Amino acid sequence: MSPNPTKPLESNIAGDNEERIKRFLATASHDLQSPLRHIAMYAELLLDDLEETLDGEQLQSLRMILEKAQAAQRLTKALMSLAGGAPQVIPEEVELKALAERIWSDLIEETGARDATLASRSLPSIRTDPALFGLVLRQIISNALTYRSASPLHVAIAAEQEGANWFIRISDNGTGIDPAYRERIFEPFWKLPKAGATPGAGLGLTTAQELLKALGGDISLEHSDETGSRFTIRLPAG
After folding, report:
1. Which ranges constitute the DSSP H helices of the chain?
2. Do residues 105 and 143 make contact, with C-beta atoms less than 8 angstroms apart?
């Protein structure tokens, strides 16, 4: 039997892509650390100096700036550790409903999609790293908001435990993914075509996949057609 010459080539391409992803994550995360540190520092200084003179709404806004800057710092540090090959995973009890609703609220503020709705009832508490898993959830929900249909977007999140794993399913009523592209959506630097969409790096789902590996889980596209898509996340229980 003659050897398959495509195998070493495919392996080399995969290895090159992985290195490119790591360099991209390391560079972007490193460059963001300094401005985020300064934002958090100045927010703390303003809180210390002006807390007695600000009204409730102003204080809430300033605390929100500090909270978001600190959260972004944690995420960039996590991405830097992932790029370094030794991701720092800090598991804790996470209320999945509260995490999903917080991410949803942030994305609606950013996109202005006021007609979109989220169903997240009866979600459990799971043990995972909230920063890393929050980044995964954010990416999937963000994709749903980007690739929506003309109808008001509806996203549903459900979770069930099967044996030693949690299965978290995120469904939407968007445009669906063309069968020709379904094998490519997790490829690094590949972007799903959409007229008028803001171009990105094409690393969202790839990064989500890598983060879930670090958490001991994985992600798959369970279903997609003209009625929408459903992604399934597997995470170890306990």
Report:
1. 6-50, 56-83, 96-111, 130-146, 204-214
2. no
Rounded-to-integer distance, Cα 141 and Cα 170, Å: 8
pLDDT tens-digit readout, 141-150: 999 998 898 9
Q: What is the pLDDT of residue 78?
A: 72
Structure pTM?
A: 0.71
**CA–CA dist 72, 32 (Å, integer):** 9
Residues in the chain predicted with pLDDT less than 70, given as ranges, are: 1-18, 20-22, 24-25, 82-87, 193-203
User: How far is it, in rounded angstroms, from Cα 207 to Cα 143?
Assistant: 13
β-sheet bridge partners, residue 236: 165
Closest CA to 181 of 168, 163, 198, 194: 194
End-to-end alpha carbon distance in the chain: 47
Specify whether the backbone of 131 is left (phi greater than 0), alpha (psi in -120 to 50) or beta: alpha
- DSSP letter string, 84-124: TT------EEEEHHHHHHHHHHHHHHHH--TT-EEE-TT--
- Structure confidence at residue 118 (pLDDT): 97
User: How far does Cα 204 stand from its chain's mean position?
Assistant: 7
- C-alpha distances (whole Å) from 73 to each of 137, 159, 181 are 18, 29, 34
Check: CB of residue 237 under 8 Å from CB of residue 168: no
Query: What are the Cα distances from residue 93, in Å, to 16, 57, 58, 157, 232?
Result: 36, 30, 31, 18, 21
- pLDDT for 85: 66
